[in-house]
Amino acid sequence: MIDRVQALREEAGGAIAAAGSVEALEELRVRYLGRKAELPQMLRAVAELAPEQRGAVGKAANEARRALEEQIQARAGELAGEELQARLQADRVDVTLPGAPPQPIGRLHVLTSTRRELEDVFLGLGFTVMEGPEVETVHYNFDALNHSPTHPARARTDTFYVVAENPTRPAASPQSELVLRTHTSPMQVRAMEAHPPPLYVVIPGRVYRPDSDATHTPQFHQIEGLAVDEDITLGDLKGTLLVFAREMFGEEREVRLRPHFFPFTEPSVEVDVSCFHCSGRGFLADGSRCYLCKGEGWLEVLGAGEVDPNVYEYVPTTPANAPGYDPEKVQGFAFGMGVERIAMLKHGIPDLRLCFENDLRFLEQF
Fold this sequence. Notes:
The chain is α+β, with helices and mostly antiparallel strands. The protein has two domains: 2-90, no CATH class; 110-363, Bira Bifunctional Protein, Domain 2 (BirA Bifunctional Protein, domain 2), CATH 3.30.930.10. The protein is built from eleven helices and ten strands. A hairpin with a 2-residue loop joins strand 7 and strand 8 (265-274).
């Protein structure tokens, strides 16, 4: 019987070494070590042998079983590695190819796309895009823009004042106090300080005010425009804004200027655009009142005006190479609009807060 155990061990070992796949190896395991295989049956029959044969036959059969189990395990590892390499070669992935199915590449946020549209309009009119600091001094945010010391916007309930990092430092003077800018207008004087006339710039960016409701948020976006040259009139302002309105809202739009007051412009105007939803009629085809312009036929979009001569006085005239803006020689106009306001009108957005909630159901519409 020992001779038969040795023969089975050699036969099974040769077959295992020659196995070409994991599946073939599993078949060999069942054939030689399965419950009904010959070698396990010999182990069960050891008890029936003569006492003097049991030890030798049992030992030979157990050694053969353990040797075959180890050989099968080793061969299984070899075959798994070979099959993995073959699969990797056959299924090589080109990581430069797009996914399957291709994934969407995303899109610009509605406010970003609106801002870029506005920039493109004014770039086409010869303006240059500038940016400025969001943490601004009171000097540039209020004083240099002709705000009186008692102007309501200076109140700490209407503006975010920035606290100095060092509480032991002496209190700053009102002119050097820092605020989160309430508009992009501080860049008017900064731009004039950096560039001599003629000057045509638009300044987009974030601004901050402590408001929060359906049409106001603590952080929002504005785009400021400034043009300074010789013989600039209110007619130039109206022509510029007419081009803007037709580019943003359609070729049939008209603009209307209404008297208003801003500290840094004189005269100042509110600018309306004829309603693009009802074509300026105030009512729709079915006779109902236009919900967008509330029956007025006009939409208020921005504030503007001729630059107040007092603002030019804040532009340094020294040293000798300072740009210098003599109000007797140059004139200009300025305008400012909310990017959110333009987006809400153009796309019919009912609540400003939707722009900042990151709800994909809303954002994917644009």
